[in-house]
Please model this.
Amino acid sequence: MRKIAPTPTPGRPRDPETGQRILDAALRLLAAQGYSRMSLDAIAVDARVSKPTMYRRWSSKADLATAALRTLQLAEPRPDSGSTPADLIATLENFSRSLLRPNGMSLIGTVLAEEAHTPELLRLFRERIVTPRRAMLRAILDRAAERGELRAGADLDAAVQMLTGAFYARYLAQSKIEPGFARQLVEIVWNGLRKVKARR
Amino acid sequence: MRKIAPTPTPGRPRDPETGQRILDAALRLLAAQGYSRMSLDAIAVDARVSKPTMYRRWSSKADLATAALRTLQLAEPRPDSGSTPADLIATLENFSRSLLRPNGMSLIGTVLAEEAHTPELLRLFRERIVTPRRAMLRAILDRAAERGELRAGADLDAAVQMLTGAFYARYLAQSKIEPGFARQLVEIVWNGLRKVKARR
DNA sequence: TCATAATTACGATACTGTATCGTATCTATA
DNA sequence: TATAGATACGATACAGTATCGTAATTATGA
Model:
């Protein structure tokens, strides 16, 4: 039985590697220079393509930037050791490392700065990074709740926001995050959340 | 004794109102558009001056932007009611309000995004806003420690970072901050920090 | 004392050189 | 043949500068 090939489009086919190179370059320069300062000329040079090559795939600068952000993925392990504090600490340490990568924080800065002008950037960053990370931390706390480890009345979402937000606040204060910071955070939050047995 | 006046300079004196109008306009546009997109033409129009007028006072765009940030001041009350949770909540609610002002978060975004290119913006924002706010919250916790309200071993700076950082994380997640958020945060952190009496 | 010269500030306008987005036109490729 | 890819280009924006006429002040000389 003859294999039926898809109907070929006449003309030269697009090179998918070229497209990927452009997206990689765009994401890199978006983080390094911010949206407004990032230029299509610079992306073209970095990806070793011409500008019309990019315009054949994306209709505008904003279109390309949003496509680049769409390639973002939270690729961090999900600890599930049975110990809530240990899982929180491990997850937060992964987060800390990604924030301290070159331009880790400036990507966040640029999506916030562009909220009024190019809102889809912040929307995509939320969808691809912020929401999945919250879900990871929330899952750890939900498991703790199922195990009966948590006292009643605490807002788990507020706890998650504090755990992640503390890194932003620390960076904003000092542009660095010391080792052991995650442990300090979890120590306080865990004390604030867990069901109390008789302490001695 | 005759008062010795400074030697007057011949020529038309500079109008301090003009200078102030320029700084106000610069700060407004910096927050609204970000550093890179903010233009000197737009500031001149907003402040109803000419560009040479601005260049007579500041040598460059970066010079003007840093001068504008230097005018920032944390002008929030410092609660000292004797109740640590109440003081924390009141302080954080002021913080929340300022973050939710138009462009409150985008100013933070732009100083972060510009860290590599115009680092003095982040440095000044830290000096004028971030550090004073941390000090306010830290003072509340230090008073609690003096009153003997805190358990041993908790890192108060980590607690402060969580309390402020949670607002950044919440904004990043949703571009809004609900009423009562501060209360939820303080409930957890206070439980995590305070000396335990017999709970019932 | 008064009028004028000298000086600086200011608005309005124009200019310079550079950067950037998006498009036109050409050659190369499948 | 039709599309991909490259170079060149047009239009516009922008930071910074130059110029002109007028405004506002001090200094100076009659």
